[in-house]
Write a structure and sequence with these properties.
The complex is a heterodimer of chains A (116) and B (112). Chain A is an all-beta fold. Chain A is built from no helices and 11 strands. Classes of the chains: A mainly beta (116), B mainly beta (112).
């Protein structure tokens, strides 16, 4: 199956700093990637749709200035959590669809963010 | 964002038993996906469904796209300990945009 890779898998940072998470599609090109957030024992909440070469589309209630998304190439999207606070601590997961029509989403391994 | 209703929330079963779970929505979907997630990992795609009434199998797993297009079902036959995990459904409303919304999850525990 398709492979989507995230980095880092775990990151601990101090409150007020910014953290960047990378999402790469390793064996296919993805014009669209998706970022999800997951709290412990909870479901995945769609945060935003990352579009290659254009601005990301954010879901209602997600602060675009807080969660900066850049989709610079067909294989890379980045999520930057700016001025992180402890309440931003969470599991962040990206996904990509290999083909738009079939829509099968493949997920990265996830990134565990802990803000002290 | 939208979430789908998934039930049951959790299940504790004996090894060898069959498992059934379902996902419902107030909206019509044209795609249903079923995932399994292990702790600390990303979800892994199990089955994809694209047509109302479609029944698709993947080994001991069988999933169906509900006729009303507002629900989907996942069955696991003859459960084994490695089936333990959280199962999520995901639905997509339109053919554009590719935004999927996830169910609330079903936590499965298999007792050897």
């Amino acid at each position: 199956g398709a492979v989507v890779s995230q980095h880092p898998s775990r990151v601990i940072c101090k409150s007020g700093t910014s953290v960047k998470i990378e999402c790469r599609s390793l064996d296919f090109q993805a014009t669209t990637m998706f970022w999800y957030r997951q709290f412990p024992k909870k479901s995945l909440m769609l945060m935003a749709t990352s579009n290659e070469g254009s601005k990301a589309t954010y879901e209602q209630g997600v602060e675009k200035d807080k969660f900066l998304i850049n989709h610079a190439s067909l294989t890379l999207s980045t999520l930057t959590v700016t001025s992180a606070h402890p309440e931003d601590s969470s599991f962040y997961i990206c996904s990509a669809a290999r083909q738009v029509n079939t829509g099968e989403l493949f997920f990265g391994e996830g990134s565990r963010l802990t803000v002290l | 964002g939208q979430q789908l209703n998934q039930s049951p929330q959790s299940m504790f079963i004996q090894e060898g038993e069959d498992v059934s779970m379902n996902c419902t929505s107030s909206s019509i979907f044209n795609t249903w996906l079923w995932y399994k997630q292990d702790p600390g990992e990303g979800p892994v795609l199990l089955i994809a469904l694209y047509k109302a009434g479609e029944l698709t199998s993947n080994g001991r797993l069988t999933a169906q796209f509900g006729i009303t297009r507002k629900d989907s079902f996942l069955n696991i036959s003859a459960s084994i300990p490695s089936d333990v995990g959280i199962y999520f459904c995901a639905g997509r409303r339109t053919n554009t945009g590719n935004q999927f919304y996830f169910g609330t999850g079903t936590s499965l525990t298999v007792i050897p």
